[in-house]
Amino acid sequence: MVTEYKLLIGGESRDSSTGETFDDINPATLENLATVQIAGIEDVDRAVEAAEKGFKVWSEVPAPKRADVLLKAARILQERKEELAALMTEEMGKVLSETGGDVQEAIDITNYAAGEGRRMFGETTTSELKDKFCMTVLRPIGVVGMITPWNFPIAIPSWKIMPALIAGNAIVIKPASDTPLLSIKLVEILMEAGLPPGVVNVVPGPGGSTGKAIVQHPGIRAISFTGSLDTGKWIMEECAKNMKRVSLELGGKNPVIVMDDANLELALEGVVWGAFGTTGQRCTATSRLILHEKIKDEFIARLLAKTKSLRVGNGLLPETDVGPVINKSQLERIEKYVRIGKEEGATLLLGGNRTDPGLPGYFFEPTIFTDVRPEMRIAQEEIFGPVLSIIAVSDLDEAIEVANNTKYGLSSAIYTDNVRTAFRAIDKLEAGITYVNAPTIGAEVHLPFGGIKGTGNGFREAGTEAIKEFTEVKAVYIDYSGRLQKAQIDTV
Ligand SMILES: NC(=O)C1=CN([C@@H]2O[C@H](COP(=O)(O)OP(=O)(O)OC[C@H]3O[C@@H](n4cnc5c(N)ncnc54)[C@H](OP(=O)(O)O)[C@@H]3O)[C@@H](O)[C@H]2O)C=CC1
Ligand SMILES: O=C(O)CCC(=O)C(=O)O
């Protein structure tokens, strides 16, 4: 008997007004894990009303007290880590060690955000007038709408929810239709930890209807979105119509540069993990390998041997390295890019096909192209699958030029044993994140996460920056002189 999940509105499990449901499919076995009710426009209205009530209560709670709820939620997440990870592997496909990492990120950001409850610093500064005191305070925004993708089913919602909560906001969240269960579980855990009713509301449903209703809702003051560039652009245009704040975390086309002085074994491990971990479905995944021509042949030979040893299969099995891709349309998208790569004249060195590990799901071989030119579509467009494109270069300047030749700017990495080379790359790579002698994936929650160019619009998630995403700054002037003082007039 398949469980049916309802909406979570005002602290209660509520039936949707649409009477419609969608299936939550395991991408490895194609079994139906659950059915989930679809929230319609009326339900989004109800969720916003509940959030407005929740905001009145929550924004009055002092931030260190809000932190108590988060700390308790982090403990519950820790206790339920294994169970949540197993459910995530069934829902999303990635291997158990990675879904454990996804839950761990949720625990880490929850603890980190709780700490921010005692650190939401403003500034104090001098006044140009006598007997006047100046400072800034951070205020919550109000009701925030969140729209999340499927590749980090609990970490990404947590990256958004926890900083927003500690700052005193209320939330309406629409999880990705491929992975709704982990968001529902996360919010149930927050409620168990003592979050007042209505502070976080979950409205599952299709992006084109439920997501759109959130973006366009006049009661929602800000949108926090992670997903594709096209959807991000549309959301930004919609938000501009109502002067709504929007923070976007979009795609990547992340390069790794391997120089001729690099530790090649270390680089090899980093490239394989960055390109094929999470089946290439990370916005930070390594999708371009920029190889110095002097080590190109040797590196490719070792890369092929290592990649061939990866086992594709059900992420629940301990021997699996690479799980399925999320759904049929992603599988077809990857196939399309393999065709494009061949037509463009790149050489397919490995993979390029669906594979069958004895299950009916969406499995694709780890795939490597070489002889890729920087302007080819496989070197420019986000594929979001286990496909790596190799581009050869003759020196650092060319490597950096190639690395920067994309509309995205999220993650980047360089392998080198030369400190000058490393610092030049840190300085010149156009990306929100640069790793030295480490893969493009594996962000830590106390550092800012996000990118430049087509990857984002200037905001950052995680770290202290995340508080900025979810607060307004108020400047405060306190004049204790007891008389009218005129700035710019009395001061000259
Ligand atoms: N930066 C990142 O971390 C990620 C990037 N991507 C990129 O996106 C591509 C496609 O993945 P996909 O999941 O389809 O990405 P989308 O941008 O389509 O979806 C991300 C989220 O936005 C929702 N959504 C879709 N359309 C709208 C809309 N018009 N208004 C409001 N919400 C909307 C989706 O809902 P629903 O699930 O119902 O469609 C989902 O919750 C990938 O190939 C990859 O390039 C994908 C995931 C993560
Ligand atoms: O790999 C990382 O560091 C985080 C990746 C991520 O959050 C994403 O792909 O959306």
Could you characterize what this model shows?
The protein is an alpha/beta fold. It has helices at 41-58, 63-79, 81-92, 96-116, 155-166, 181-192, 207-216, 229-241, 264-276, 296-308, 328-344, 377-380, 396-404, 419-428, 465-469; strands spanning 3-5, 7-9, 12-14, 21-25, 32-37, 124-125, 132-140, 143-147, 170-174, 200-202, 222-226, 245-249, 254-258, 286-292, 347-350, 367-370, 387-393, 411-415, 433-436, 471-479. It has a 7-stranded mixed β-sheet, with helices on both faces. Strands 10-9-8-11-12 form a 5-stranded parallel β-sheet, with helices on both faces. Strands 1-5-4 form a 3-stranded mixed β-sheet, with no helix packed on it. β13 (254-258), α9 and β14 (286-292) form a beta-alpha-beta unit. α2 packs antiparallel against α4 (96-116) and α3 packs across α4. It is globular and about 80 Å long. The protein binds NADPH dihydro-nicotinamide-adenine-dinucleotide phosphate and 2-oxoglutaric acid (AKG). The site of 2-oxoglutaric acid has 9 residues, from loops.
